Amino acid sequence: MVTAKNRQKVIDEYFMKLRQMLKSKPLVLHLMDDIAIDNTLESDPSLEKLKRRIFELASQQPYWGEEKPARWLPLEQAIMTMRDSDVKVAPLSLIEEINRSSSVKIEDRGELELFLNFQHDIGTILYFKSLITAKTFIKQHPTITEEWFEFEETGQLTHKLIDAIWTKEKPDFHDNKEYLLLVMVKLNIIAKPMSYTMDGESVK
User: Fold this and answer.
1) Do 77 and 53 belong to one domain?
2) Were 124 and a residue from 3, 91, 118, 119 both cysteine, which residue would form a disulfide, CB within 3.0 to 4.6 Å?
3) What is the secondary structure of the chain as a DSSP string?
4) Which InterPro entries does this entry report, sorted A to Z (predicted)?
5) Which residue range(s) make up the domain with 170?
6) In this predicted model, what pLDDT tens digit does every residue of 62-119 receive, in sequence order?
């Protein structure tokens, strides 16, 4: 039972257990302050402490105080609604359609790109442009036709296909190929293949 006398001890133990659970996860970096709110109290002083701390941290963000166009708000709210509805992937065409249907819209593609990059920077979304180009690429580079159709049919993305496309279309991507592939794996955009031993055990 939590009492006024042992409250701080219980809080300290709880946050220590939480840090133990998250010790190998990136989320542990966000555990900065041990502020516990007692929702059984009509007015918990810790709530005001939490509000002040949130304001302090928010005001330290690089975009704090920056103005943004009011016409961005409808699309921003639509994206937040999609995210809250557990929509994990939204193609650019869908974002453009939502924007067009809004009574207050972002007028041109350049500003839409700016909006999406801003949302990416503040952590609302992860915005990626296409990393693999369209089918028309194989007409110009028939040597990777087999790899392209294998990718379409099985989802297997070979280094030969990546090299062929990124070398021609995205040289900056190719220069940072290993890093980008690691990021894509980390974000579950692609998955590393698994191999199996004779006894059925899986290994990376």
Assistant:
1) no
2) 119
3) ---TTTHHHHHHHHHHHHHHHTTTSGGGGG--------TTSSS-HHHHHHHHHHHHHHTTSTTTT----GGGHHHHHHHHHHHHTT-----HHHHHHHHHHSSS---SHHHHHHHHHHHHHTTS------SS--THHHHH-GGGHHHHHHHHHH----HHHHHHHHHHH-HHHHHTHHHHHHHHHHTTSS----EE-TTS-EE-
4) WH-like_DNA-bd_sf
5) 136-195
6) 667 777 888 999 999 999 898 888 776 777 888 999 999 998 899 898 999 999 988 8
